Amino acid sequence: MLIYAILPLHPRLGQDLFQMDAQMWAIHGYIPVDGEVILAEFDHRDTAMAVLAQLAAAQEHSRTPY
Fold this sequence. Notes:
Blueprint: H1 2-6, E1 12-21, E2 24-31, E3 35-42, H2 45-63
Antiparallel strand pairs: 1-2, 2-3
């Protein structure tokens, strides 16, 4: 799953999307080694929003002490 490919990079998410062109949406974030980068691209805004929400939830879960 895509979020498991992104999480090991330890990104700081911008919590927003940007439209790259008429039919391309991107999630951007900050990765300590590379700086600001595009983490993923999507053909549909709804898909990008869903993945962004999953990433945010997964990051929050990983910060929760057990």
